[in-house]
Amino acid sequence: MTEKILEIENLTVSFGGFKALNNLNFSMDTGELRVIIGPNGAGKTTFLDVITGKVQPTIGRVLFKGRDLRKIPEFAIARLGIGRKFQTPRVYLNLTVRENLDLVSNRNKNVFSTLFGRPPLEDSRKVIGLLETIGLTAKADLPASLLSHGEKQRLEIGQLVAQSPDLLLVDEPVAGLTDEETENVGNLLLNLAESHSIIVIEHDMEFVRQIARKVTVLHQGTVLCEGNMEQIQNDPKVIEVYLGSSEE
Fold first, then answer.
1. Is residue 54 part of a domain?
2. Given strand 197-201, what is the order of strands in its sheet?
3. Is 90 within 8 Å of 156 (Cβ atoms)?
4. Which of 3, 164, 192, 248 is the most buried (most CB within 10 A)?
5. Domain shared by 50 and 101, yes or no
6. Do 176 and 58 sit in the same domain of this protein?
């Protein structure tokens, strides 16, 4: 039986009188790629915030590899093996692509040692492999400021993988990208899914169709339904609250 990497039980998050998440239950297997969709205000960002410890549950709990994450600070959850990529790329624009990856590949490093020290052979090999994985080998020694928006997205995903998380949380990775860049990011995530557990939050339905194996639909802070893309597209509840919504 496949082990669960993430389990969320009876989760409610209240801000004043507003319930951003409302008695939400969710689980995913180790090695799974899961896509989360839902209309604006469905609770998708809060969902990620609770997993990473940025927001604490009002009721319920989050289990990561069987461990209750309540009361564990955000930085400690990251060290347990949960990595998050936000919608807007957060790369070091004045550093090269290689230096960006080198900096985050070892927690003991800082900007000074990255720029002026010689990286250990193991770290150098790791960075070379990451450059190939994210498709930026040819631009390894260019400043990150010269990358396109899509390339910056791939670089940040590479930075995330460099930290060796067990669970990757990726928030709207193709917002504002061209069709070609979107396809490149999709192929990257499918490649990473062969060795990582990944949750992707996304609005772009064509992109969801490209990468989705199992989709979870959130609505009003709870799980509306789950299934493959065909099941989701044909679900009357989804058609009403998401696919037919003018907000998307």
1. yes
2. 82-85, 167-171, 197-201, 33-37, 214-219, 222-227
3. yes
4. 192
5. no
6. yes
The pTM score is 0.89
CA distance linking residue 102 with residue 94, whole number of Å: 14
Tens digit of each residue's pLDDT (9 = 90 or more) over 43-85:
999 999 999 999 999 999 999 999 999 999 999 999 999 999 9
Residues 56, 196, 205: CA angle, nearest 5 degrees: 80
| Residue 248 in this model has a pLDDT that exceeds 70 | no
- Structurally, the chain folds into a number of domains equal to 2
Q: How far apart are CA 199 and CA 180, in angstroms?
A: 22
Find the DSSP H helices in the chain. 44-52, 74-80, 97-104, 111-116, 121-133, 149-162, 179-192, 205-211, 229-233, 236-238
Evaluate whether 218 touches 36 at the Cβ level (below 8 Å).
yes
Same domain, yes or no, for 127 and 54? no
